[in-house]
Design goal:
The chain has 387 residues and is α/β, with parallel strands linked by helices. It contains 14 helices and 16 strands. Helices cover 29% and strands 13% of the residues.
Length: 387
C-alpha cells in the first residue's frame, strides 16, 4: 500500500478556504506518500485529529448538498454515484451515473474512478438520506469534493417520487411537544478559543493506532452497516422510542424557533454549526446509548450521524427529519414548499450501465393545481446549507 488518501491534507486545504467559502471552489482530494506520513505523525485521539483539521459540523458549508438542477447541468463533468439497489438503478438512473454499493464506495473512489479527477463527486439514492450519510463518511475520510443530491431520485423524475411523497406526514402527534421541552441544554464542554483545554478522555475510546489507519477502519465499518443501523423511518423509531425512551439520546439539530414550535418529546436541542463540534457539546452525548439526530429534511441529520459514527458513537438519523412527523406545521408556517413542487422530469437512462440502454428525454413540465408557495426566511443559496 504505497498511498492513502489522508484526512489531514484535505482538511488543511479546507481550512485555508474557510474565511470565504463562496469565493473559492471546493478543493479536491490529495494523495501523499504513506510511508513518509506514518513517520511524521503521532498517534492522537480521533476527536483531536478532527478538531485540529476542520471540526466538520462547525464549518459554514456543512452539510454538503447540491440540487438536482445543478447535477442536470453538470452530470457530464461530475462523477455521479447511485447507491440504490441494482433493480432500481436499471429501471432508470441519471445519465452517466455508476451503480456502486455503499460498502464499495471507498475502493471505487481510490482505485476505479479517483475523486480528485472530478470537480465534484455526487452521491444519489432514493430521498438523499443514505447518500448524505455516505457523503459525511467520505468527507471525514478525506474526500473533500463529495456531495449529496438533495432529495435524491425522488425529485429527479416523477417516476421515482414515491419515497419522498409517501415519506412526509404527521405521524405520531402524541410524541411531539412544544415550548422549551423537558430536556434542557447544559454548559458547553469547551470553547473554540486558544488555550482552552479539552479532555479527550470524555469521547468514545477508539483503538490507538496511526490516524490514517484508524480513519479508514472507521469509514469501512460505517459503510458496511445495514440501513437500520444508521437510518430509521418514523414508523421504526417512534413505536420503539415510546416504549423505551431511555434507550435513545435524541438531538433536535435545528434553530431555537423550530424547536419551540414542536420537537420530539425529550429531545435536546443542539445549535447547528456549534454544538456538535468537538469544542461544543459533543462530550455531553452518552457513549453507551443510541443517538438519534434529526433536522428538517434528514440531510444534515445523516451527515451528523456519520460524524458521530466515525468518532465511536452510535449515530442514527430520522429519515426525512421533521418532515416525517410534523410536515403540515412546516407547510402552515411556510418554512418550506410542498415537496410535490420539488419533483422534476429530468432525463433518465434505463439499463445496468451508466450510458447504455434507453434514454428518456426531458418531459414537458407538469401542470400544477396551485403556484409554488413562498418560503419565509429564505437564505442566500450556497454550496452547503441546511437540510
Amino acid at each position: 500500500m504505497k498511498k492513502l488518501l489522508l484526512i489531514l491534507i484535505s482538511f488543511s486545504l479546507m481550512l485555508a478556504g474557510c474565511k470565504n467559502p463562496l469565493s473559492k471552489p471546493a478543493p479536491r482530494g490529495k494523495e501523499v506518500d504513506f510511508e513518509n506520513f506514518v513517520r511524521s505523525k503521532p498517534v492522537k485521539p480521533l476527536a483531536q485529529i478532527y478538531y485540529e483539521h476542520g471540526n466538520l459540523p462547525n464549518r459554514p458549508d456543512f452539510p454538503y448538498l447540491v440540487k438536482a438542477s445543478e447535477v442536470l447541468k453538470n452530470y457530464k463533468n461530475y462523477l455521479v454515484i447511485d447507491l440504490r439497489r441494482p433493480e432500481d438503478y436499471k429501471a432508470g438512473h441519471i445519465p452517466g451515473a455508476y451503480n456502486v454499493p455503499k460498502d464499495k464506495v471507498l475502493d471505487f473512489l481510490k482505485k476505479e474512478h479517483k475523486a480528485a479527477a472530478y470537480p465534484k463527486v455526487v452521491f444519489v439514492c432514493y430521498t438523499g438520506q443514505t447518500a448524505s450519510y455516505v457523503t459525511g463518511i467520505m468527507r471525514l475520510a478525506g474526500f473533500d469534493n463529495t456531495y449529496v443530491m438533495l432529495y435524491g431520485m425522488s425529485v429527479w423524475n416523477s417516476k421515482f417520487a414515491g419515497p419522498l411523497l409517501n415519506g412526509v406526514g404527521d405521524r405520531y402527534p402524541d410524541m411531539v411537544e412544544t415550548g422549551e421541552g423537558t430536556a434542557h441544554p447544559v454548559a458547553h464542554h469547551g470553547e473554540a478559543l486558544p488555550g482552552h483545554h479539552i479532555d479527550w478522555n470524555k469521547f468514545p475510546e477508539l483503538p490507538k493506532q496511526l490516524p490514517t489507519l484508524l480513519i479508514e477502519q472507521q469509514a469501512r465499518k460505517a459503510l458496511k452497516q445495514e440501513r437500520k443501523d444508521f437510518l430509521l423511518k418514523a414508523d421504526e423509531f417512534f413505536p420503539y422510542y415510546k416504549q423505551n425512551p431511555l434507550d435513545y439520546y435524541v438531538i433536535c439539530y435545528l434553530p431555537a424557533k423550530f424547536y419551540v414550535d414542536g420537537h420530539i418529546k425529550g429531545a435536546v436541542r443542539f445549535q447547528p454549526h456549534k454544538d456538535l463540534g468537538v469544542d461544543g457539546r459533543l462530550a455531553e452525548i452518552p457513549k453507551d446509548k443510541k443517538v438519534l439526530v434529526y433536522c428538517k429534511t434528514g440531510h444534515t441529520g445523516s451527515q451528523s450521524a456519520a460524524w458521530l459514527d466515525m468518532l465511536g458513537y452510535k449515530g442514527h438519523n430520522l429519515i426525512l427529519g421533521s418532515l416525517s412527523f410534523m410536515y403540515s406545521k412546516w407547510l402552515k408556517n411556510e418554512w418550506m414548499p410542498d415537496v410535490k413542487y420539488l419533483v422534476n422530469e429530468y432525463p433518465v437512462v434505463e439499463g445496468d450501465k451508466p450510458f447504455s440502454g434507453k434514454v428518456q428525454a426531458v418531459a414537458a413540465p407538469k401542470k400544477i393545481a396551485a403556484p409554488k408557495p413562498a418560503v419565509k426566511h429564505k437564505k442566500k443559496e450556497v454550496t452547503g446549507g441546511c437540510g
